[in-house]
Design brief:
13-stranded mixed sheet, 3-stranded antiparallel sheet, about 375 residues, transmembrane, Replication restart DNA helicase PriA, disordered N terminus
């Protein structure tokens, strides 16, 4: 998807409070900015003419063959507070001089700009509640987990993800087997498989397949896998105010390769078998080509918590829209040992009970 901008750049960058001039930040669950000083609210107005359109993948390939993500330049950011400019790889951050919001001014050639954003729905308190429920559900965790001040430790960030749509056309050759009853000379009936050659073409539509654009945590895979793009809006920098956002470090070519491998591992073979039909199928060969491949860069919201326990650093992520939690935690050895002893005790009682029953019926 590409954004067709509307309005002026100045309108897109106005993040200062119109009442007192202080910094504003996007308030999760709303389409408004809230002033961090006076609390005034400013509605986020949709930019006139802004649309959400997927980019043709072939066009990107033709213009970026051989170009590595690491070789791309940084994004020029400007502070809305002191107006200092800096170059960095992030899409949203805070000024190192005055802690004001940094907003993007220019983007280097070759960098795919965000097409859409999934705005935060959960605020810090709601993310903390989700974390608390997650801790409670993991009874083997160390007791120190309950003392973590998640409300102060959580940071909000946007994770770049790629969304792909494509049409896969597969030409195959194989065999179709149909099970049929056959009466034998002795009047017995057996089921035999009658085989016949099969060949054809099947089309598979891939829609909004999500692939991570950057690895920010070892525990993010499940959240990316379960990510729903429902609620995506055309990118506007106002939704990034008060949050951080990192740039992708995985280009569309690498991301599409993952989409292709996943489709050819499960989805396409199933479609081919269904197309052949019968009770049994054999696929001798299958050749898949892709057309109408399109992609978009979407920013997905995450609440990130990093804590130190048992001499190690651990991380917990909370989906900024659904509240789904993925994370790591140190296991309490004492709790684990007690749990094992409890189960062993129950198992011993079952064994003794069964032995008593066997003895009773065999005496």
């Amino acid at each position: 998807m590409t954004v067709t901008p509307g309005g002026s750049d100045r309108e897109a960058l106005m993040l200062a409070c119109p009442a007192c001039g202080s910094q504003q930040r996007h308030e999760p669950g709303t389409k408004s900015l809230a002033c961090t000083a006076c609390g005034a609210r400013t509605a986020i107005l949709e930019r006139t003419g802004a649309t959400l359109v997927e980019q043709p993948y072939d066009d990107w390939v033709h213009g970026n063959t051989g170009r590595q993500v690491a070789s791309l330049g940084g994004v020029v950011m400007r502070c809305e507070g002191c107006h200092a400019t800096t170059e960095m790889a992030e899409l949203a951050s805070v000024c190192q001089f005055c802690r004001g919001h940094l907003v993007q001014v220019t983007s280097p050639d070759g960098v795919v700009p965000p097409s859409g954003v999934l705005p935060f729905l959960l605020d810090r308190r709601q993310a903390t509640d989700a974390f608390t429920a997650w801790v409670t559900s993991h009874r083997l965790g160390i007791d120190e987990l309950t003392t973590i001040n998640a409300a102060e430790s959580f940071t909000s960030t946007y994770l770049p993800v790629w969304s792909f749509s494509a049409t896969a056309t597969t030409t195959y050759e194989g065999r179709r087997g149909d099970r049929k009853p056959v009466r034998l000379p002795d009047d017995r009936v057996e089921m035999h498989t009658e085989w016949q050659d099969a060949a054809g073409t099947v089309t598979t539509r891939i829609d909004s397949q999500v692939v991570e654009g950057r690895k920010v945590s070892v525990v993010q895979d499940r959240l990316v896998r379960n990510l729903s793009l429902e609620g995506t809006v055309p990118f506007q920098p106002e939704y990034l105010a008060g949050h951080t956002a990192t740039r992708y470090d995985r280009d569309p070519a690498s991301a599409f390769e993952e989409v292709r491998r996943a489709a050819e591992k499960k989805r396409i073979p199933k479609d081919v078998r269904d197309h052949i039909g019968g009770d049994r199928t054999e696929v001798r060969s299958a050749l898949t080509g892709y057309s109408d491949v399109r992609f978009a860069l979407i920013l997905a919201p995450l609440w990130v918590l990093t804590y130190i326990a048992a001499g190690k650093t651990w991380q917990v992520l909370v989906d900024g829209r659904t509240g789904e939690v993925a994370g790591e935690f140190p296991v309490d050895g004492g709790k684990l040992a007690r749990l094992l002893l409890t189960w062993l005790g129950k198992l011993a009682l079952v064994v003794v009970g069964l032995a008593a029953v066997v003895y009773f019926f065999n005496r």
